[in-house]
Amino acid sequence: MRGGPFILVLIAVAAVIFALARWLDNSYAFFVGYVVVQYIVLGTAWNILGGYTGYVNFGITAFFAIGAYSSVVLHKLVPAMPLPAMIVVGGVMAGIVGIGTGYLTLRLRGVYFSIATLALAVVVQTLITNWDFVGGARGAYVLRPRTAPLIGGGYIDYLFLIMLGLCVIALATARAIERSSLGYGFAAIRDDEAAAEASGVPTLKLKLIATGLSGGFMGMAGAPLPFYVTYLDPSSGFSLNYAVNAIAMPLIGGTSTWLGPVVGAVLVGGLQEYLRVTISSAVNVLVAGVLMVVFVIIAPQGIVGLFKRKRR
Amino acid sequence: MTALLHVEGLGKRFGGFVALDGIELEVQDGERLGLIGPNGSGKSTLVNCICGTLRNETGSVSFAGEKLDGLLANQRTHRGLARSFQLPRPFASLSLAENLRIPILYAVNARSTGRLAGAAIDARCRDLLGEVGLAGKADRLPRDLTQIEMRKLELARAMAAQPKLLIADEAMAGLSHAEVDEIIALLIRLNGQGVTVIMIEHIMRAVMEFSQRLAVLVAGKKIADGAPKEVVRNDEVVRAYLGE
User: What CATH code is assigned to B3-88+161-242?
Assistant: First the structure.
């Protein structure tokens, strides 16, 4: 399928999902849907750097929280600013940090890069915790409007719709990368960086594109968060859950295609939510961990990889 | 004839170890040069310095009249330098055809002339695989290949960048008699198409058959350079290989 029709299909699917949620008319459905779709965006963002280019980023919460806290700042400075504009700002901020981190750390390879990104998460969390303007360690309250702009209904409907839109953009971008020369360049870097350079691939430039895009989408996924939780403090914004899930979901679904993070997020996110409601709210962290271990052993290429291998 | 590659006073050290010391080397356009030397004499280091994988501390490398110093490996590939690796380094998750697609997208298409698109890239990948006898395996992964096929893929990927100069770093190590002949024939055919070739090799039969000129490295120094038959009779070369 070419790029144009693919985007139309994505939009149609998103529209059907949104219509379905509206028809159910249950705010819990919106809350769950928001979380799952947010993880699709987060997983896709991680996959652009981790899956396509082979650089494993553990600092997901840094980028995610930069997006979230840029919304907190904007909400305090310009309360009337529409959410989509905040998402763009959050994405740009996180993207810039992504490029900066990339420039400073991409001479590091393999596990050393991963450790550096972990350090970044700690640094950003420390900065936010000590920044009084955004609430510091106390956290910040963000009062959201009671009703949704444009579409009516609860504000959560609007948040869900925004996140669906973001998801469409992220997936269309990921798939476009896969089929372009950029995707081939990323794959070459992942497989063998020295051979990639010898084949003419400008590795530093491509890695900066990957860190910028990946960080940017993580920031965008985080930007609506303050409105979703209405109270944001560092320990929830930088929660390990986001990092674990954003890595586990693409790994479980499959890192080689755009579909992997979708499958992983729907499966793991859905299961976590089901267990949270039926058993306990603490068990959901266990799910990602256990599933990740199981999949690394029985299906290192993820669920999508499992089906591809059967077809070959 | 003009010199295509000109290496001047090139030096490289790793800590206290001098790997290359004042190497002077000229390669003429269209030439077939053999480069030999005992293990650890600096052959691969020289290739890495010429191709930009390693940075030389002293001296300079010029290619087609342009100084390459300070350019990254990929920028040197754009200018028409290509190399194969001593140990094959295929892109493991990509099919054979896709392996060749990388240099076409990033080296050939980065030049202002001869850009390829869509179906033309596919056709070119298959032609190249056909040239090295791998046409039937275009959609397979590198892990399905035998040792000689892996070396052929390595050469095909270097050729896909459409280089003016190809450096084959021990493309034949560990291959059988007949397989060595195949690779020599391939390299000579390539040279016939106008590509200058530097062959680094331990197998003397291959070197003598292939080279128009022979250079010898010993302990980071070039000790001989000239017609192959004369070089192998050179006292210093004999001493380096066989001892006193």
Answer: 3.40.50.300
